[in-house]
Amino acid sequence: MTAELRELYQEIIIDHGRHPRNFGVLPEANHHKEGFNPLCGDKIFMHVQEKNGVLEKIQFEGCGCAISMASASLMTEILRGKNFHEAEELFTAFHDLVTEGSASEKLGKLAVFGGVREFPARVKCATLAWHTLKAAITDDAKEVTTEETI
Amino acid sequence: MTNENVTEMIRQPSFEQGGEGGYKRDFPILQQKIHGKSFVFLDSAASSQKPQCVIDALVHYYQQDHANVHRGVYELSERATKAYENARIKIQRFIRAAHAHEIIFVRGTTEAINLVAQSYGHAQFAKNDEIILSEMEHHSNIVPWQMLAEDLGLVLRVIPVLATGELDLTAYEKLFSSRTKIVAISHASNVLGTINPIQEMIKTAHAHAVPVLVDGAQALPHMPVDVRDLDCDFYTFSSHKAYGPTGIGVLYGKTALLEKMPPYQGGGSMIEHVSFAKTTYAKLPYKFEAGTPNIADAVAFAAAIDYLEKIGMQHVFAHEQALLNYATAKLTTIPGLRIIGTAKNKVGVISFVLDNIHPHDIGTILDHQGVAVRAGHHCAQPLMDRFNIPACVRASFGIYNSQEDVDALIAALLEVKRLFV
């Protein structure tokens, strides 16, 4: 087992990957969005209960690799009670972490995703949940996909 | 072929480059280390690696022989033309086609199928006509027909796949109607490995006077193919899965069918006479080869076929069958591993799922141990739905693989289990 692999698959990621928190439907949700990674077929459904710009509760469903499931699971935990602006800031910080490895203190537990930067093919796995959430709360009608246009 | 015969053939390679170190020695790319480990390449079903002789043929062509074909009167143009046409003849003989003009050079299997769908389909099909496909098809043998169906108002009929990964032949026979216009099926499945009984299926189709297109991408590199014996109407394959370069492939078609078909693309080379009033088209195969063709890759593909013929396709088949049997037995010993596709006749392709560990995680961990496998839906989403899995891991073999490669795969999978359990 290489050091990079151990850093990628930290215990907390394996744990949340196998036993995702906040998994399932959320009847009180007032924002919904489906996200898709066409490369690997990973799918995620984000359900958000929002009141006055505050994310009161987030639940998700879907299937995917340990990285994408753990990312979604930990995201639903950290964003609970945050407002839109704070969520946006965390997304930016998270994105910087998985692409450049720059860890911001406000990320807390999410710092475990720092190992992803060594695996460029897996960045999309780590960010799918965040992209989907962002589209859900901005009620973006566009399809959420990890594919960028060239 | 019995297992003993297979083992015998592996101990006594018919080709001098086998033996110690196996055919791996012929492939420079396989000599490197990946993440500090010996490189174990188990993704030949996606694209095979290239032996030195193919790389040399490409270099030689560009260093010595290149000019445009069928045009110049000078030495090099003649040399290039001869090399290109000799490649066509080599492929004709390799698949036992009756005529060299039945070999149309295209970019690959995908373009070959699109060519038939667009040219043959537009000329021969009408609203409410039916096309028979199978549930195990690669997207490249689904989408071109879907596009045509949308265009003309056709109906796609799908042969179901049984739990073993074999086609439901009883259902197949019932799919024919007076409106059936073509059957398009793969010779071997890129996910399940199943070798379909295409000879029998072609007989059934012909009994209904329906032509058959065979997607041979996963079969041609791994077993002897005789298109006249199969009696298929079209056979398609790619060079890059058969140890040749990317960007070149073949559409084989029976003369009578190809002659009925209008050109696929217009341009230079595919014409006989052009005026603004009327253009007459060139004869086969040039009618379907508009523009300057991919000369260099055709020539290098011929070098790949030389390589395969020196080893002998029977030996290639036996070598990979032995690996398939060895790997299947070894993989079955891993608790929680389920093989997807357990047909009696398979090419060297094994897809599997392991516990509930996602294939991408498995792929990443294997990669770090130098083992390259495919993880995902393998361009066969309908088939993933059939087996109720979002994705799977696939290990596939080529002539360069050995039992040590399988052992490396098994060891790496046990590491995956250690990490996730």
Keywords:
heterodimer, A: 150 residues, alpha+beta, Sufe protein. Chain: A, four-stranded mixed β-sheet, 5 helices, 4 strands, B: 421 residues, alpha/beta, Aspartate Aminotransferase, domain 1, Aspartate Aminotransferase, domain 2, seven-stranded mixed β-sheet, four-stranded antiparallel β-sheet, 14 helices, 17 strands, globular, disordered N terminus
What would you note in describing this structure?
The complex is a heterodimer of chains A (150) and B (421). Helices cover 39% and strands 19% of the residues of chain A. With 150 residues, chain A is of the alpha+beta class. Chain A has a single domain (3-139), classed as Sufe protein. Chain: A, CATH 3.90.1010. Chain A has a 4-stranded mixed beta sheet with strand order 3-2-1-4, covered by helices on one side. Chain B has a 7-stranded mixed beta sheet, sandwiched between helices. A 4-stranded antiparallel beta sheet of chain B has the order 13-14-17-16, covered by helices on one side. Chain B is of the alpha/beta class and 421 residues long. Chain B has helices spanning 3-11, 52-65, 75-94, 109-124, 143-152, 169-174, 198-207, 227-230, 255-260, 295-311, 313-332, 359-367, 381-386, 403-420, and strands at 33-34, 37-38, 40-41, 103-106, 130-134, 155-159, 180-186, 212-215, 234-238, 249-253, 271-274, 279-281, 337-340, 349-354, 371-372, 374-376, 392-396. The relative contact order of chain B is 0.17. Chain B has 14 helices and 17 strands. Chain B is globular and about 75 Å long. Classes of the chains: A alpha+beta (150), B alpha/beta (421). Chain A binds chain B through residues 1-2, 4-5, 8-9, 14, 17-18, 39-43, 63-67, 69, 119, 121-122, 125, and chain B through 35-36, 356-361, 364-365, 368, 375-377, 381, 384, 390-391, 415, 418-420.
